[in-house]
What we know:
Blueprint: H1 3-18, H2 22-35, E1 40-44, E2 50-53, H3 55-61, H4 65-69, H5 79-90, H6 92-95, E3 98-106, E4 112-124, E5 127-136, H7 138-160, E6 165-169, E7 174-177, H8 179-184, H9 189-192, H10 197-200, H11 203-219, E8 223-231, E9 234-246, E10 252-261, H12 263-275, E11 285-290, E12 295-298, H13 300-306, H14 310-313, H15 328-339, E13 344-351, E14 357-368, E15 374-383, H16 385-431, H17 438-462, E16 471-473, H18 475-481, H19 483-490, E17 494-500, E18 507-509, H20 511-527, E19 533-544, H21 546-551, E20 558-567, H22 574-579, H23 597-607, E21 611-616, E22 622-629, E23 652-656, H24 660-672, E24 676-680, H25 683-692, E25 699-703, H26 711-721, E26 726-731, E27 739-740, E28 743-744, E29 750-752, H27 757-770
Helix pairs in contact: 16-17, 16-24, 17-23, 18-20, 20-23, 25-26
Amino acid sequence: MSPTAASSTSARRSRELAGCTPDELADVARALFETIPLPAWVFNRETLRVAAVNDAAVQHYGYTREEFLSLTVDTLRPPDEQARLRDELARDVVDGPEQRGRWRHRKRDGTIIPVEITRHHVTWAGSPAWLVVVNDVSAREQAAAALRASHDLFNAVLEGASDPIFIKDLHGTYLLVNSAESAALGCTPAEMTGCRDRDLFPAEYAERIRQTDAEVVRANAPALFELTLPTVDGLRTYLVTKSPHRDTDGSVIGVIGIAKDITERKHSEDMIRRLTVAVEQSPAAVVVTDTKGRIEYVNRRFTEITGYTSAEVLGKTPRVLQSGITPPEVYKDLWTTITAGREWTGVMQNRRKDGQLYWDSATVSPVRDTTGVVTHFVAIKQDVSAQRLLEDQFRQAQKMEAVGRLAGGVAHDFNNLLSVITSYSEMVLEDLGPADPRRADLDEIRKAAVAAAGLTRQLLAFSRQQVLQPRVLSPNAVIEGVDKMLRRLIGEDVALTTVLAPDIGSIKADPGQMEQVIMNLAVNARDAMPEGGQLTIATSNIELDSHYAGDHIPVVAGPYVLLAVTDTGSGMDDETKRRLFEPFFTTKEKGKGTGLGLATVYGIVKQSGGFIWVYSELGQGTTFKIYLPRVADEPMAAEAPRSPESVHGTETVLLAEDSPGVRSAARQILGRLGYTVIDAPNGAAALALAASLTGPLDLLVTDVVMPEMSGRQLAERLTALRPGLKVLYVSGYTDDAVVRHGVLEAGISYLEKPFTPERLARKVREVLDAGKRGEP
């Protein structure tokens, strides 16, 4: 309606009302007041009491009409707005006959609602009053809040997207872009908004973009395009989804687009296409399947690894290779990954056509066409069985080395304590009379120390820190020497057979330690055959080539003597074989074994320069194969041990030992035998004592490993000052300058800890008497 028409209508209504009597006008006003759909009331300007209220107000605010008419208008406001109300009402004469405002009202149930009100000056019952008309704007504010939230969510999604998103009008003007879109062109969304493609791209690229926009608008349907565009990072390829942008009545007013950067994926596809020419000659197996997993192509290497021909697998799935050993979760993860368009890499254990198992390392990738749709999967596969074997062997070797270092360190420290216990217990036993009741208790202490010393020797054997006295010997002679003892040890229900090569080569090893190896393996075999069986010990000459050495780390190629011990017992599972040589690991019942027998075998073989392997299956028996380096020398005849006639002496002995307990025990032992003993806690103190000594000094007894100055350094300095000085080294540790890798150097006198008084006395006397016999 035009302003002129509205004015005419208002004038007409005024003329109509002008002809009404006051009573008639009052009736009209009352009817309007009661029927208006908005809440309305009249209140006295002086008392603020509500004088009249319509039904809409009663219903909207929850008061009865009687309750409403008993209120003052300030009670309809929250407490924090009542002062403002009174201030406004005080200014109503100044502000004019009509007032509008935004308030908060309180309903009868306490609910606070936002309202817009209009107040008019009226006279009611002869008194000045206000007519109030209320508009509850709660719904409008909620809608506005929802709109703001929707707008914020839209902006969050738009800006949170990593892919470029844009909206353009029909002229190609950008109406909205996200940061990913503008960042690709090196600008901000605000700088890009309002621009056209020709403002942002070179002409040939802008024209291609406009063509794709036109196709979407013309077809009035979404479409997918692959576009290569210049960006701040150079040319990039995008897979762009474009859809018509419609207004509320469905008319197309522009284009909405989402772009996916597929540059890297395109490079991968191009690489695959370039490699198809050479793939048949690839050293890796190549398998191409459709999206259902059906094999469409295999190369020559695949047939070589699996034994299947192309004709045998085409149309089938790679399940023909499954062994049943690889967990199902591996295959599930593979399929989930590649069907999601991602590359999968993993290792599985497969089975060849002939039934042989092998480890298969595979990388499976999706192959897409130019529109980005996955059409095939390609798998690049390698037989990594040899690599897995080497890795397992290397990890096992590392574990055994770590355990060995720990065991050796414990044994070394324990030997000092055992030397003290053994020495003092034997000295006290010498002092006690035969009938002394304390002898039995003390003898038990000595026996326990001796048993503990045996355990430490086994730990040192495992850790390759025992002291060996090797000589060239025949392994056949060692086996023949323990034959009778073995037969008694294994019992009558185990048949022992020896198959000894007559032309067996020589080895260089400690004969006592080799006997221990054979005995321990025999005992282990006997325990695996509780109901009897067959035990076979065989020897042979063998050459290990580089191929075998490469498959059996850390074997070194060369000539070896093979000692094989085979039983027909219960065999072992893989977990037992993995832990077989660990100290204290045993499958026997509690109290039936220490778990050190095979650990000792392992250490002796390793320290002798050899290698040991075990072959076993549950129910199929076990074979231990020991490879010891073959030497060209002839076996040496064993020397008969010589014992000194007397262990007493009157010579002067300088004792250098950093362990107070060991030093005190050794001093007392030698002092009891008549020697003059001077002792020092370290090398420097020993040098000072020797320098101040005016009389003869016959023997230096020194610990090998001491702080600041080793026993070897001390001996070298003292023998330079006293050329005739004899030296006896004492230690329980082999990684030092005197004992190299557990083998004594020629001409070295050595006493291993823990020692007994008798062993110390005999060794001291032996070293002192060596010169008298003309020995070095």
